[in-house]
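pasting input
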Amino acid sequence: MKVYSIMKTILITLFTVLAFCGLSQEKFTISGHIKDASNGEELIGATVRVKNTSNGVATNVYGFYSITLEKGNYELIYSFIGFADQSISIELNQSIKKDIELGSAAQTLEAIEVSADRKDENVNSTEMSTVDVNIETIKKIPALMGEVDIIRAIQLLPGVQTAGEGSTGFFVRGGGADQNLILLDEATVFNASHLLGFFSVFNQDAIKDAKLYKGGIPARYGGRLSSVLDVRMKDGNAKRLSLSGGIGLISSRLTIEAPIVKDKGSFILSGRRTYADLFLKLSKNEDLRNSQLYFYDFNGKANYNINENNKLYLSGYFGRDILSLAGEFLMGWGNTTLTARWNHLFNDKLFSNLTLISSDFDYKLGVPEGVDAFEWNSSIKNYSLKNDYTYYANTSNTLRFGLQSTFLDFNPADFKPLDNNASFNPLKLPKKFALEHGIYASNEQRFGANLTIDYGLRFSVFQNLGKDTVYNFDQNFDTIPGNSFTAYQKGIYKTSTGLEPRLSVKYSLTDQSSIKASYNRMYQYLHLANNSTSGTPIDIWFPSGQNIAPRWSDQVALGYFRNFLNDKIESSVEVFYKTTENAIDFKDNAQLIFNRLLEGEVRIGEAKAYGAEFFVRKRTGKFTGWISYTLSKTQRRIEQINNNEWYNSNYDKPHNLSIVATYEINKYWNLGATFVYTSGIPLTAPTGKFNYQGQTVPIYSDRNGARIPSYNRADFSVTHDPKKNENRKWKSSWNLSVYNLYNQKNPFSITFNADENTGETTATKTYLFAIIPTITYNFKF
Amino acid sequence: MRFLFACSFILFFSSCREEIDFDLNESNPRIVVDGSITSQNKRHEVRITKSSSYYNQEMSQQISGATVSISDQNNVFTLTEVTPGRYLTDTMAGQIGNTYTLSINYDNQTYTATSTLEPVAPLDSIIAIQLFDTIPIINEVDSSYSLGIAITETPGLGDYYLFKYYINNQLESDTVVEYAFTDDTFIDGIQFDFDPIIPVYQIDHRIVSPGDLITLKVFSISKHYSDYLFTALLQTEFRQGTIFDGPASNIYGNVSNGALGYFYASDVSSASTVIE
């Protein structure tokens, strides 16, 4: 079979390259882990550089590094943003293990030497179109209702658009919300929203690091067209028991971390719950007392070092939103993820990780009592096995390869009456099953001091599994009479494949500037039906198959990276162009819920997005922050929509400016401020109206042809760490955040409605948030 | 405390709305058709009006002087304009299984629409029962009459129903927003009786008095017309600027040549009851 012959070719090529790399002589390897000295957390992306050369390497997501050098004497410099550099001298005549613990810059203030070495990842790494989000940075930014949120911080970066005021839905370089691969410790998070999108599922206390790939996406990721948000949970304090938490206006959080065996293993448990609805219990009104609206989530993780070559991790997330109106209507939704990992070092150059993942998203609606009682369930589940390898061949070659297989289980809708006397029937849409596989290999290769190329290939396979019922449609998207469906028996009944080349090139112009270019092709086999503008939980995921072809996209990006003032200021300019084939949209007035003919509502076409992104950031010092500006355009052309003409995507916002600034006045007082300006979202505006049986109905011409007024907002925050913190273990701080400081009534939407009685037609703007001040108390022990 | 709870609820459930000035482009006026033919023996009506610019606050303009006819396989029924924009057939009844074509000639343009008259499940009887209800949250007691039906839904998926009710033979549910209509996805083949009562309509106690005659009519409609009525609401009443709104779009009728509106043929069954 074609699929397997391609896999075989990739594997053979890989092992030939590996064998070749192993031929080097009189070279030795220094490897180990880089950790935070205060709590033993492994540092992701910390660097090791060989002084006076251009050789260097960064730690992987497990804090592991490996660098191979010729026999000789070296000085190695270990560094990480926010931490003091550490340098060691070594005489290299055998391979050695070197675990390093870095102290934070603040803790070892006196010890900091002003290093002449560069903090030049911005310029020097081959990665482009990526954004690293450090949780400590985000905590200084003003937060909506005091809830510090990773996704809300990402929305302040170039190339990322929000779904709407306050929403944690996001769109990357013109890609839809379902084109983001959101990973929490490698498990797919299908819906990252709480409370209808106003909060994300990522609890600030449990998250270590997040990285967003907008372009130049490495071969090890696949399955979504536009971006990867790779979120990593904290490992837990390996040094001592610690407690932290916060009490805010709408939620509270508590986290406990402790060693299992000191410096060998640790765990973290973190929970939070909103309690807006607890106040309802105080109401005199019985219906309100019986109403609920809240979410809670738990993160848990444990790790254990069996020996220096083997380490185990177990992590999970469980979160749920509950909405109940007077006990008469219930709705609940949430994600569950579970990840088990085994890090294994075959030798000091070959790092491997084996991962078992399960993840699911489900929602439930229902009326619990009476003759109308019903329950409606829907879910998507996946189970995945993943095996990744990194081979640190020598200072010029780092190979990555691996494979992943996933079993997917879709339950689009299962509707059941609960009363025996019910006057309606159950409805269960057929479940769908599929397998998704990926195999990849890539090599990051250095050619001399200035040129580095990371080239890779991913091969993806998608297989639909029976039993299944597939409806047959004609050109008008109606079912074919007499042949309306095909029933498939158990087993694979359709296989789709995709070859996905990936390439990133970096060329250093000077020590402080470089040019980077990248190309990636991505395939996506899952599609999301959700017609609302932002994070409502009624998501219906459906697979590619007989009716819907896989989508794929090609993206090229070119960037210029320049650091100033001894790397204190980083800047970059990137341009990108992205096209998508088999892009989907839904026909006008599509019916997505309870529709067994859902695939007949889908329309296929193409999409394109292009733009320029400008970014200036200062990461160190008392005054930090960034300015991000994106100029972009995103459009689609879909069969039967907008007369087959190009139209703006729903989230096309040509101008997007964010300014973020934090200032440390002294040890006790910190200020944070943000300002956001964006173009208004596209709007389909009426060009006329008519009356049909008492209903005044608008007439539209161009889809998304108009635009709502532009958006602007400023937020402000003050954080106070009282002086008494210094002499005790219990450290507390107060945070005051003000969202929408100057009370701008930004339009969330504009609707055109007729007055019921007079028939008078007007335009109405809806805005969600006026000024919102919040106070939060945080503690750490 | 009460203030806090109020704040949090307001935050999530309501948002603020205000009227704004928003400039709009204008399109050329189009003709709008509202017509039907049923199995009842009566004069069937077609109304023709004109669309207007969005902010125009005048009533729809009637279209006079059009040539209007309805035909089936064998006959052509010509309609006469009785008042401006209102065209009527002679007294006649549509036949089950026939396909009817509406044809309009106006201003050198021809507009046509076709619809097939499908049978409807017969309505056995109806019942009107007074109910007292407490409105949640505000705790007000209100009463209304629930209009229950006895009917056996035709087995097999793909039936669509439109219900209208009359008080003393006067049509009461006369606008799209008041119509009750449904498909049989959840009720296929179910035999409805009055246990339990499934209210098709809730009639406000203020508009009826004991002794009033309540009539319910059920019309067989096509999937397409059912979608038309639903999307007419989806694009108006259901679009309130919240995060739940779907995309704005046109609604698509069955009249050709760029005309708006709908022409449908339907079977009708009716039953009556008296308010006690």
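fyi The first helix of chain B runs from residue 2 to 13.
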